Structures are given as structure tokens and as C-alpha cells.
Amino acid sequence: MTTFNAVAEAIHIVAALRAAERAGVLAALAVAPGPVEDVAARAGTDPRSTRLLLEALDAIGVVAAEPGRFRLAVPGADQIGGLLATADRLDETVRTGLPPVDVRTADGAGRLYPGAVAALSAAQRDIADRVADVLGPGVRDVLDVAAGGGVYGIAVARRTPESRVTALDLPEVLPTTRAAVDVAGVAGRFSFWGTDVLTVGEAPAPRFDVAVVANLCHLFDRVTCADLLRRVASLLRPGGRVAVVDVLPAAAGDIAARRAVALYALGLAGRTSAGGVHELGDYRTWLAGAGFEEPDVVPLGGSVPLSLVLARVAATDRTPAAV
Ligand SMILES: C[S@@+](CC[C@H](N)C(=O)[O-])C[C@H]1O[C@@H](n2cnc3c(N)ncnc32)[C@H](O)[C@@H]1O
Question: How far is the CA of 109 from the centre of ligand 1 (A)?
Fold first, then answer.
């Protein structure tokens, strides 16, 4: 595809999503799957244009066309208005350096994420399964830090029947986490911890074997990330592991990954004034400072390539106390 064709296609994808969200077509599908006429009647839209829109959304995988009806293929896709709104206002961010909603604060995250995390989770199921595989069997007490739509904790719970998962997130987001855990049928193995991870102190229960920190560090600056990982270390048992999942800078020769990561980093600027795509060397420094051993790094793939940075805290209890 030429660059211009790729740009035209990208514009059409965003336009289709924006139209579907603003015209209420995604909301109408979230109520129930149905034929075009029912969806259009529910949304109050023109049936012919609605059919074209639904066929385009089917082609990009947001909606699924089934015999006689359309259904949402991405759970939570009807809630993506907040993410689209930050993208719509990227020009303001470029002018001022400030995102319209700054998720590095608990207030900003509490406003943006309740609507966004279900769709973000749906996009990461395969990656989460892979992380659960790497963590392996025998994992018992798991802390899913900033669990969002719960995809990582749910993957571990499914893979390891004896595991118990504590999903930590802001109180505003936890109802979405709970709903996803219920749908996954693993509610009996979950507890929920509504708190701000940047100020968290003692764990409410025995310390954890594993803490998953997925797609969180990129919201924050380096000093905050170092502090965050110290806090996480203090929640682990001696010998426990942290599993950081995040985007790392792409290798210089990998043109596709560089493009994906550059666009992702630009999108991030529209949500956080201080976060970004951090270097692997930064993660190593923060982990060492928090009392972890040298990490293993496992590429996880994905359209914006993610990596697992897996590190064990010292086996004797030398972890720094939470600050
Ligand atoms: C990009 S989402 C990632 C969710 C999930 N870990 C995943 O990978 O799909 C970021 C999550 O961090 C949570 N979060 C942001 N700031 C937080 C804070 N200060 N304390 C607790 N959770 C926070 C958000 O509510 C959101 O669920």
C-alpha cells in the first residue's frame, strides 16, 4: 500500500469509528445484536448509511456480521468516545503540550479509563494468555496492578486453577473490572482493591507471588515509575516476581514496529503530559533500585509490539518499605 493509500484508509477508519460512536450506532449494538433496520431504528439513523457503516465496521473487526444481524465484536467498543475525544484534540496537545485529560493523575485516569478499559482488554487477550504461559503453573497469589478490564488477571486465573487474583485499580474503574471478571466466570477467585497505586502502602492480605504491571508505566514519568516499582516490590513476598508489560522503543531497522511505536507515543501524548515509551535501560534501573534481580525480557508481539520485563525480588526480605 502506498503511504497516501494508508493515510486515506486510516482517515476512513477513524471517521467510521467516530460516526458510529457519535451517531449512537455502537450504543444501539451494545443494547442487542440485530439486523440493520433494528440497529438504525434504535439509533435513529438512516438505514442505508447505517448498513454501509456496519459493513465497514465489520471489515475492520469492530462489528461482526452474522446471518441476518450485526453484533459488537469488541466488548466495550461503544465506550470509546473518551479515547476518540482525546485523539480529536491532539492539535491542542501539540500547541500546549497538555492533553485534554491527563491520566497521570488519578483524577484524569478515573475519568478516561472506566469507558476505555473493556476495549483495551479485548485487544490484549492473546498477549495476556502468553504472559500467563510465561509465568507458568504454581502461581498462587497474584496482584493485577491497574487491572483495568482485567485481561491479565483473568488469563492467569484461567490458566492456573489454584491461583487467587487481587485486581487493583482506581475505585471508579473497578466496576468495569468486576463486570469482566463475572463474564469470564472466575469471580470466585478474585478480590478487588480500589486504591491509587501511586500512594499505596501495605497490602490488605498476605503478600503476593506475582504482581502484573501491564500498560501502566507509560502513563508516568521516570521518577514516578521508579517509585511505583518500589511500592510494588514491597507488596511481594521474598522471591516474588514482577511482570511488567509495556511498549519498548522499536529496533532501528524494524520499520513497521518503529511506525507503530511512533504513532502510539504520539497518541500517548494526548493522554499523559509526562509519560511515554520508556527505554528498557530505564526499566532495568528502576527494577534494580526497587530490589529486583536482573530482568528477563520476552517480546510478546502485538500490533504495537509489547514486551514482558520479568524480574524477581531478592529471596530474603530486603525490599525497601513503601514510601
Ligand atoms: C492503559 S490501562 C491498562 C489496563 C490493564 N492493565 C491492561 O493492560 O489492559 C491503565 C490502567 O491504569 C489504571 N490507573 C491509572 N492510574 C492509576 C492509579 N494512580 N492507581 C491505580 N490505577 C491506575 C487505569 O484506571 C487503567 O485501568
Answer: 7
* Ligand 1 contact, 214 CB (< 6 A): yes
CA gap 47, 39 in Å, rounded:
8
Whether 150 lines ligand 1, by a CB cut-off of 6 Å, is: no
Ligand 1 contact, 146 CB (< 6 A): yes
Nearest residue (by CA) to ligand 1, atom 3, is: 215
Domains in the chain, number: 2
Residue 75 pLDDT > 90: no
Measured CA to CA, the distance from residue 142 to residue 154 in angstroms comes to 11
Contacts of 4 (CB under 8 A, 6+ apart): none
Nearest CA to ligand 1 atom 1: 215
Q: Are 72 and 33 in contact (CB under 8 A)?
A: yes
Supply the mean pLDDT for the chain: 93
Do 51 and 144 reside in the same domain of the chain?
no
pTM assigned to the model: 0.90
Cα–Cα separations (whole angstroms), residue 163 to 134, 140, 152, 186, 190 = 15, 4, 13, 11, 9
Q: Which helix (H) or strand (E) holds 166?
A: strand 164-169
Residue 145 lies in a domain: yes
Cβ(216) – ligand 1 distance below 6 Å: yes
Q: What is the CATH number of the domain that holds 27?
A: 1.10.10.10
What does the pLDDT read at residue 303? 87
Cβ of residue 169 lying under 6 Å from some atom of ligand 1:
yes
Q: Find out whether the beta carbon of 197 lies less than 6 Å from any atom of ligand 1.
A: yes
Nearest-angstrom CA–CA distance, 52 and 66: 15
Q: Are 110 and 234 part of one and the same domain?
A: yes
Residue-wise pLDDT for 151-184, tens only, equals: 999 999 999 999 999 999 999 999 999 999 999 9
The confidence score (pLDDT) of residue 269 equals: 95
Contact, 230 vs 211, CB < 8 A? no
Domain range enclosing 28: 3-73
Separation of CA 177 and ligand 1 centre (Å): 11
Verify that 69 and 110 share a domain, yes or no: no
For atom 9 of ligand 1, the residue with the nearest CA is 121
